[in-house]
Amino acid sequence: MDGNGRWATKRSLPRNTGHREGINAMTSIAIACKGLGIPYVSFYAFSTENKNRPKQEVDGLIGLMRDKFDELRDDFNDNDIKLCVMGDISYFGKSLEKKINDAVEKTKNNKSIVVNVALNYGGRDELSRAATLSAQRNAPISEFLYTSGQPDPDILIRTGGEKRLSNFMLYQLAYTELFFVDTLWPDFTEKELNAIVQEYYYRDRRFGK
Ligand code: IPE
Ligand code: MG
Fold first, then answer.
1. Ligand 2 being an ion, which residues bring their Cβ within 5 A of it?
2. Please, which pLDDT band fits residue 193 given cuts at 50, 70 and 90?
3. What is the tally of structural domains in the chain?
4. Would residue 26 count as lying in a domain?
5. 0.90 exceeded by pTM
6. Can you point out the beta strands (E) in 56-110?
7. Ligand 1 midpoint to CA 2 (Å)
8. Is residue 206 in some structural domain?
9. Is residue 22 a part of any domain in this protein?
């Protein structure tokens, strides 16, 4: 979900206002995915590297999660969306961690779609953690990823014009179809999502075969 900061700056608004809009867009797109019959969707909200942004922005983002998480939980419940979290949320402190876990707990029986939200998530971090557990327990790495039990993504969409993965789902994206769009995340709409899904059907997927 890239481009929140630029979306706000273009409007002479504080970057955090862009992040707030970004959360609203995330809920709308999650609902749109459900409408398309997509069973799983993952959103990259806060990376392990985002912690290195200026303190004011990091504090703003964490404050926003604190303000918005209860609303997110209710929106997800109203739409039968099951929330899963990818990442080490202990970084956010006891009270926010509890709020996040509460949303996971309260939405766990929802059935229409699973929405993974990556919070303090890094693909390398996930892999090194999974590799240790895999060696200790003598079981495949994939069982210890945050997405354990879920299929690999078919489609990756990065908004905001950059063409890189930025440490997102490095294991899971091995054969994923990649889409890069210039649209800034808060402006990303269901219409654009539909166009990407249509284009996806014309991609020839061979999985190396
Ligand atoms: C993405 O928007 C949201 C987060 C990484 C938290 P950015 O904050 O990267 O927005 P730009 O790239 O500066 O526009
Ligand atoms: Mg960015």
1. 2
2. very high
3. 1
4. yes
5. yes
6. 81-86
7. 5
8. no
9. yes
